[in-house]
Amino acid sequence: MNKLFVFMMKFVIAICIFTVIFVASAYIGYLYITPTSYISLKGTPSVEFTVNAFDRVIDIEADSEMGEIINDLELKNRNISNAVQTTVNELVSEGYISQNNNSSLIISVSNTDVNKANKMMKKLHDEIKINLDGTDEIQMVKVETIIIK
């Protein structure tokens, strides 16, 4: 009888551990695929990134002219700062952003939480730099926060 009790306790503990691991994995998976923010590069062309709770890109939408270029960059599952910087560098190299055509680029951060949106805005503002036409001139981009209600 004592061996049966010990076996049952070990079995129940194993089931509890398995359940906790399964629930934690499912929750983390849910957080990974659920969009929390939208980052838009407004200019010619426009690009919109959908970002998860871990600041990873889960979806990208671009104008038709940029669609193929964006797909070639393989930006999904990258950190948003890295993905935006790579996209900006590609826009500069393709000639969409240059000193000659007086182009501008506005990065918009959309989120339901004001604090998260402002934090993301500051992070992008501090990390994204545009090197125009191969010169050493670095230009800052304008970053704005939009709150989703």
Write up what this structure looks like.
- It is a single chain.
- The chain is an alpha+beta fold and 149 residues long.
- The chain has helices at residues 2-33, 64-73, 80-93, 114-127; strands at residues 37-42, 47-51, 57-62, 106-111, 129-131, 138-140, 142-147.
- Strands 3-2-1-4-7 form a five-stranded mixed beta sheet. Strands 5-6 form a two-stranded antiparallel ribbon.
- A hairpin with a 4-residue loop joins strand 1 (37-42) and strand 2 (47-51).
- The longest helix has 32 residues, at 2-33.
- The protein is elongated, with a radius of gyration of 22 Å.
- The chain starts with a helix and ends with a strand.
- The mean pLDDT is 82.
Query: How many strands, what sense, and barrel or not for the largest sheet?
Result: 5 strands, mixed
Strand order in space, largest sheet: 3-2-1-4-7
Secondary-structure-derived class: alpha+beta
Instruction: Summarize model confidence as the mean pLDDT.
Output: 82
Compute the gyration radius: what is it? 22 Å
Total count of helical runs of at least 4 residues: 4
The poorly predicted ranges are: none
Helical residue percent band: 40-55%
